[in-house]
Queue: 2 jobs
Job 1
Amino acid sequence: MTTRVAIISIVVEESGDVETLNRILHEYSRYIMGRMGIPYEKRKISLISVVMDAPADAISAMTGKIGMLKGITSKALYARLQ
């Protein structure tokens, strides 16, 4: 199975779906190498970085599920290495 290394950026603007976000991250935990969250009180948001080594379809599926949550956005940045 070919995997890709990616950094997922997540911006939480509304905390209503944070529990669902954590469930999604747990669902893909076998692919997650590390995670860092920073609350930004001045702007009332949270910023989360998730580093993954996973098949591209798993990364896309996870970011797609996260992107459907109200008040939460996500984007993936892939490393060029194969």
Job 2
Amino acid sequence: MRSDVIPLLLGADINVYSMARAFHEAYGLKTVAYGMYPSGPCYGSAIIDYRVCPHNDAPEVVLENVRTVCREFPDKKIIVLGCGDNYLTAIAENLPYFPENAVAPYVDLALMEQLIHKARFYTLCDKYGIAYPATFVYQKGMGHDFTLPFDAPYVVKPAESATYWDHPFPSQKKAYILHTRQEVEQVVDEIYANGYEDELIIQDFIPGDDSNMRVLTNYSGADGKVRLMCLGHVLLEEHTAHAVGNHAVIITEREPALCEGLRRMLDDIQFTGFSNFDIKYDRRDGTYKVFELNCRQGRSNYYVTGAGYNLAKYLVEDRIEHKELPFTMADRRNLWMVVPKKVAFDYIAKEHHGAMEALMRSGKCVNPLFYGPDKGLVHKLRLLRNHWRYKGRYAGVMEKVN
């Protein structure tokens, strides 16, 4: 138990709840969270002081909310974490203006903008010899007069995610998988017609189902050195338009060579705080290829805490207790899932079922949203209702495995 720290989380999704649970498990702390709507997994939670705040991700609102909580608890350290891409630059922009009792583990705005912009991030990958999919960077105004140096299928996605979602339209997707040049041109035109201004990324589609995906979550200390790396083998993703690519089932595993290459880059650029990489294994050449770096913990971050590496503890021991943390490459196996077990076994290839069943039998399986000490009855009933809706969501977009 601690009485000198208050976690302040910005957002309202599984990411927020997972970090709040980590703080509660490690220290018995109740989190303050600001979200935009009276809904989501944080709303009604007994372990979260959830506050509804419209325009929660605007830089001036972020600054005011941090100042408010710092004034409420002047004798405590307020740990500020953004739990979505839309909060990152707002936090970085305000770092010089946060009160003295605020602790915000983030790099400065200039470095953050380089890292979260996919085209600029790929330039950094070239410098450090990190593989990524064959890529064409499309700039607004190119029209249809451009040549793609790879064949279909193609992936189209924004180079800068936060501003992309500021311009919604009915058919908008997180990423598009397209099979013809004509489809690419139609999607590009539609995105820019709805107000997006930045570059688009057009990439070679790496073949393979969800189980070819990996997620690597890291914590880098205040000194800019990586202290924790935990690789997750994604077995199933979500497939609705706005959630495509979100993880649904993960097993932790080890790939030291992959981790060490990315560790060298993070250490060299003096990154600090949480980061995660989206990665896919390309069976065509036997390499792992990185899609992006997020300057935060991902929404599936509890796969790390659930495996025995509590992310809140790493943060508190580094930034509050100023401990000298050794480097750890996670090696404990654990199964993380946010879908019902039946959904997992219905849509994940049978070659993985044995490992899943073994972890379940040994108690090494966790859903971050179902936390015993969180006693709110209405909250639990809402979570259960949403949990079982996954059956219908998958039935409409995927075929069950044979």
